[in-house]
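User: I'm putting together a teaching handout on how multi-component assemblies are represented. Below are the sequence lines for each component of a complex, exactly as they appear in our records. Could you produce the 3D structure of the whole assembly as structure tokens, so the students can see both representations side by side? Please keep the chain order the same as the input.
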Amino acid sequence: MTGIKDVARELEMSTATVSRALRGLPGVSDETRQRVQRTAKQLGYVPSPGAAGLASGRTRTVAVVVPFVTRWFFASVVQGAEEVLREGGYDLLLYNLAGSGAARHRVFEGGRLTKRVDAVLVLSLQPTDDELTRLTALGRPVTFVGADVPGWSTVRIDDEAAACTATGHLVELGHRRIAYVGGPGELDVTAPNAREAGYRGTLRSAGLAHDPSLEVDGGFTLPGGIDAGRRLLDRPDRPTAIFAASDEMAIGVLRAARELGLRVPHDVSVVGIDDHELAGFFDLTTVAQPVVEQGRLAARLVLDALAPGAAKGGWHPAQVILPTTLLARGSTGPPPTA
Amino acid sequence: MTGIKDVARELEMSTATVSRALRGLPGVSDETRQRVQRTAKQLGYVPSPGAAGLASGRTRTVAVVVPFVTRWFFASVVQGAEEVLREGGYDLLLYNLAGSGAARHRVFEGGRLTKRVDAVLVLSLQPTDDELTRLTALGRPVTFVGADVPGWSTVRIDDEAAACTATGHLVELGHRRIAYVGGPGELDVTAPNAREAGYRGTLRSAGLAHDPSLEVDGGFTLPGGIDAGRRLLDRPDRPTAIFAASDEMAIGVLRAARELGLRVPHDVSVVGIDDHELAGFFDLTTVAQPVVEQGRLAARLVLDALAPGAAKGGWHPAQVILPTTLLARGSTGPPPTA
DNA sequence: CCGGTTCGCGGGAGCGCTCCCACGATGACG
DNA sequence: CGTCATCGTGGGAGCGCTCCCGCGAACCGG
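Assistant: Of course. Below is the structure of the complete assembly, with chains in the same order as your input.
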């Protein structure tokens, strides 16, 4: 296995120069640099990230902690992050929390990340105090996606505002009995609370009564949405509109409506959040959020923080809030004129 | 940052013993081992994988190369692999090929993986000769998922057989004009060819005419499936049944059928492959394959190959072919009795 | 009682880089 | 013409581990 030393010997120069030349550092004449690059390629030299990491303290690797890789939303964020990280010469270490319940604990605990990565991306998790302590102890840039963590770098949408947009859309259409499908979901993810708050706030400011029985748990999954939809729609005083806190649940609600022979939007309107890849397919009205872009941005944020000079150059955590847009499709309309 | 040396000094023993004790190697008395473990934890010692890798040549990291993380199938395989790898103490380095077209080339080229990972998992890609050469040059265990690569470890289903099952199901129901929605898809993925072969073979052995105009490209995506469905169903001599080589495309076909006012399965039957998480939702008949399990198995395979003693202990590549099952749901039935 | 194992442990040489410091050569400047 | 930056380069000490080898003590059988 040819190393930097072999290249140096071949060229009769020091390993220091070879290292500098190969990494594009200043202090090397153009001619030398080119000779080094040529010989390195010729000898089939491949740098050893492990050794470089040992010596420099930088691993050129970023950890991405994700609740459920299999969910479209998270997978898309990961895709965006991977894109930017690889572009920037960083590797992406994936930590999936689904499956074993202890996984979440294990990732943050015991400093498993400590000497392994230069930065961490945490997706949609509301970190516990303990986790924040450990992340602080890491002493490395951390960016949260889809969570509001004061004092830390975050990339997200305004979940409450998005919920307001969705609910407001229904209010404007004339609905007065609007149900909410949300729920905590499995891991402690951030969005639910904010979206619920947006829903309630909008009802209040519209002067509509808040009926707790119209708030049901959909577990943020499609089957959960079906269940929730059935419960809400299979009752005499059923709502005329349903706001589901995620498109997956909204699609479930659509399904439930169809099962019960209700026409959408004639009998019941449904709106979601996300603009899931299938939302258009189901003609679902939704509040779209940029997904891949959040991953890209978050990656860019940690890359900036990692850039030479960021530490001294007065780098500080950034809060990026991306805009959302109402996509009014066919699943919403005025309430039935009973 | 406390290292192994600090632990050794604290206990007044050699770093060698500490290392052995911490890694569970033999040659350490139980008492010593316990003392070491206690002190290590107490000092907050965290091992440095980089240093360990440098010294041992093993990085305890596995690369997973995936065409599109955002696709349910691949995300699920990744999930399965992650589970097993983490369990085995390995990290998972994710390489997503979607997005930039050069990504695929870049991963295998230039030995980027060479000193970075102990093993590689390649999902659903049909490797080129060049890629195989490079993977061989790696000198590390490689396992392919969803591809048939003679001489290498593979975990997959029998795609041709699965296609036969699907097509055969339609034949048995009495269909005689059966269309196929497939196509190469974006990256050079394995499954398409085998599934097409299964479709054709079944037609042939059933003595049915092979009509090339009934084979259309669905690009292995949902929109592609809609398109394909429209083209097939919006013609006078439309088929009475459609076999789509993936559930995503099959769902698209269902959509196209509904658009055209055709009832499923009364007017047209549709069958897919995968048992996608939404297949049940759409009441789609499909040939189910274990997805997460393929990821788990592949991970287990490389872990076995990596296990101490595997190299000398006569380890050799394994071909695992997992069974598929026909899930006859509501999207298939006898042909219309025109 | 003695030679040979076995067991537990220590010493220390790397692994392949990075980075600090030093050094000579060159050019600018008063 | 001497002084002092500046530039390109070399030397070499680590980074934090692993692993080979060696050593003494305990043990065991004849």
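A couple of points students might notice: The CA atoms of residues 146 and 156 of chain A lie 4 Å apart. Residues 1, 3-5, 15-16, 19-20, 23, 47-57 of chain A lie near DNA strand C (CB under 10 Å from a C1').
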